[in-house]
Design brief:
β6 (151-155), α5 and β7 (183-188) form a beta-alpha-beta unit. It is built from 7 helices and 9 strands, in the order βββαββαααβαβαββα. The protein is globular and about 50 Å long. The protein starts with a strand and ends with a helix. The protein has 245 residues and is an alpha/beta fold. A 6-stranded mixed beta sheet has the order 5-6-7-3-8-9, sandwiched between helices. The protein has a 3-stranded antiparallel beta sheet with strand order 2-1-4. Helices cover 31% and strands 26% of the residues. The protein has 2 domains: 2-76 and 149-243, P-loop containing nucleotide triphosphate hydrolases (Rossmann fold, 3-Layer(aba) Sandwich), CATH 3.40.50; 87-147, no CATH class.
Length: 245
């Protein structure tokens, strides 16, 4: 498993008038190996920018980020985005295997096994355009997890889905995370999703994004969690109040 340490992370973007917009204003964050952390914040607070920096997709203008696998070595990192980002000219099973190297990329049995694990048995020979939005996002989950990552970064992966489909995806994600025990950092603007999934919720301020609060859930809300639990709902409302500070 792999932990994440961020210290003083800053990201600035130039403006047309010659000024600078500070998107991330000095973030310190520690994520323990195997921990599921949700980053919650209003639109434009820099949470996606922070996620891209943590995952190595972008560089900070200041500060440092390190991923430290237990036992050393190079961590396997995987990503999920709001949209599935499937390649339309490849069949579903080939989209799942696209992230693998060498002969593993052509291992149809392994690809089909992962499709089965996300509830898509028998669709491997289809093309993405023939699948619903929810099914396409399940393919994206299979593609992200087939590499058995040390760290999974997720940027609002279920926000484009209807609530029933999103609920099903969250449940399946938790089951697979329970098997793999990878470290997860997920960005969301949905407070209930955050408290339902995460061990800890990191609440960010409006731009420039900084950490203003953390809500630890794992002690008070053991899994599996009930989305109808009134205490969990009250915790999500507490997160909303913190967003308004």
């Amino acid at each position: 498993m792999t932990g994440i340490t961020a210290r003083g992370v800053v990201r600035r973007f130039p403006l047309e008038d010659g000024g600078v917009r500070v998107a991330v204003g000095g973030v310190d964050l520690d994520v323990a190996p195997g921990e599921f952390v949700a980053i919650l914040g209003p639109s434009g607070c820099g949470k996606t920018t922070l996620l891209r920096i943590l995952s190595g997709l972008d560089d900070p203008d200041g500060g440092t980020v390190s991923l430290a696998p237990q036992g050393g070595g190079v961590p396997v990192v995987s990503h999920m985005f709001q949209e599935p980002r499937l390649l339309p000219w490849l069949r579903v099973q080939d989209n799942v295997g696209f992230v693998l190297d060498g002969p593993a990329r052509r291992d149809a049995a392994r690809q089909e096994a992962w499709l089965d694990r996300v509830g898509l048995k028998g669709v491997g020979r289809e093309y993405p355009m023939r699948l619903s939005a929810g099914m396409q996002q399940r393919v994206a989950v299979a593609r992200a997890l087939i590499v058995e990552p040390d760290v999974l970064f997720m940027d609002e992966p279920f926000s484009a889905l209807d609530e029933l489909t999103a609920m099903s995806m969250r449940e399946r994600l938790l089951l697979l995370w329970g098997e793999l025990r990878c470290t997860v950092v997920m960005v969301t603007h949905n407070p209930m999703e955050a408290v339902l999934l995460a061990d800890r919720v990191v609440v960010m301020t409006p731009s420039p994004g900084r950490v203003q609060a953390e809500i630890r859930l794992v002690d008070d809300f053991p899994r599996p969690r009930d989305p109808d639990d009134p205490e969990l709902w009250r915790t999500s409302r507490d997160a909303v109040r913190r967003l308004r500070l």
